[in-house]
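Follow-up to my earlier ticket, as requested here are the two runs.
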Amino acid sequence: MGFRMCTGFVSIFLFLATAAAVVSFFVDYWGDFVFPGNFGLWRVCHGLVRGCQWIHADRYVQFGNVPNWFLACQIMFTMAVGSLVFCLVLLPFYGCVCTKGGGFFLCVGRMIYSTLLLAALVMGIALLVFGLEIHLGDSENLLGSVINDLDWAFWLMVGSWCMTTITVAIMFLAHRRALD
């Protein structure tokens, strides 16, 4: 498998991983409440009547209903999604200078690989913490409501993590092959 083909696979997987992560990051379907309603990383929706509210509204923060692990997950997911977008922007520069070699090629390749690896690690830790806290933690304290189950946006972020991990592996192989 040639360098161009590996770079093409990196582009495809990175685009899919970034698209899935961005969609998952902004939607309100990370989990379902026992009563009608759902929540995301940034908003809480209580049924059709009350609508959605920002998760850091005075109503939730005032009573301490946003736990520290949830805030840590928000920060880690923000770092991971930002890193994926950054790598997606840098990848065309890496592909354009691939025939020239030299210091710039090495720098951009290592920067993309390191940033992708960081994104995969941070996203994996955040997913693990989020999933375990919802299932094993005190989920009744989350936003003052009882959590029923994780919803499709969480699983979309898990898929994004899998594609990011595959992208890291392909990027490592592609950059190694280009240096030989």
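Run two:
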Amino acid sequence: WQYYPNKKGLVSGIVFCGYGLGTFFFNFITTALVNPHNLKPTIHIQEGATVVHYFERKVYKNVPYMLTALSIAFFFLGMAGALLLDTPNNVIQKQYQQPLIHDQPKNNKDQALNNQHVEVSTAVESKVFWHLFVMGTLSSSVGFFTANVYKSYGFLKINDDHILTAIGAVAAIFNGLSRIFWGQFLDRFLSLIHI
């Protein structure tokens, strides 16, 4: 935000686009680690009115290895991202620094958020924090639910792990690119609305 203070929505959209598009790659990576030979679910158990499909040991024994490999990959990606962090020089930072709250703060907690350094306890007690927390929780819970169950649901109609992985990857592309759109939308249409 410090480099592009007037394009905060777009910058956020690009950052979150990385999360969405990351799913595209990790969909294929996890499937390659767990089920490289595209084995079909062979264990079928009747649970109520539906039949649930499970993979045999050849597939599910690879899950701990996949979790370890992903943990290592996420660690190195996180370290690379941390090394790439940079702030603009002090002249640019002071010239474009804008307060988090645009109109007059309604209480002392919101007033404290206008300062550059904010204590965690002050932030947690502010109205802005809870507004953003509820928005983030509600908007991400649907995506997390869908990402976790799309293969379980898909196996009811499509009995091919690689095809379901490709479908999830296409969904990840739309997920990532839509975040850029919504970021630009926020910059353009909601710049008139103040928190």
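The only thing I checked on run two: The first strand starts at residue 43 and ends at 47. Let me know what else you need.
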